[in-house]
Amino acid sequence: MTKAFTSGLLLLALFISLAGYTQLMEQKWIALYGQGLEAWAEYRRTGIPALDSPALNTNNGVIPTCLPHPGFEESLNFTNFDTVLKRMGGQNDKKLKLWFAK
């Protein structure tokens, strides 16, 4: 076998395994119907399935990646609240990437 042929086989095997992984994760997402938070966590972790944001979206067309901290957290514990937001590198909104998704 030539080196190019071997490389082609390896690329084909990689493509098939990635397609299989995508299909597996889509089936898992479907199986999690009725377990919204778990399905959302799997989507945030893997990005599978490829979802589009709904037409009426209050998050500027972005699928939420986290839940904002409640308002009382900011008013009762501002020092730590502000420190955490600075460490996470964002604002208290639904677009902030979580530590495992960066």
Structure report:
This protein has 102 residues and is mostly helical. The chain has helices spanning 3-31, 36-46, 71-76, 78-88. Helix 1 runs antiparallel to helix 2. 0% of the residues are buried. The model has no long low-confidence stretch (mean pLDDT 84).
Question: How does the SSE layout of this entry go?
Answer:
Blueprint: H1 3-31, H2 36-46, H3 71-76, H4 78-88
Short synopsis of the structure:
With 102 residues, the protein is mostly helical.
Features:
mainly alpha, elongated
Range of strand content: under 5%
Please identify the structural class as seen in this structure. mainly alpha
Mean pLDDT: 84
**How many angstroms separate the termini?**
41 Å
Q: Largest beta sheet, briefly?
A: none
Number of DSSP E strands: 0
Low-confidence stretches at least 5 residues in length (pLDDT < 50)? Answer: none
Helix content class: 55-70%
Radius of gyration using CA atoms only: 20 Å
Shape: elongated
- The helix count comes to 4
State the order of secondary-structure elements, H for helix, E for strand: HHHH
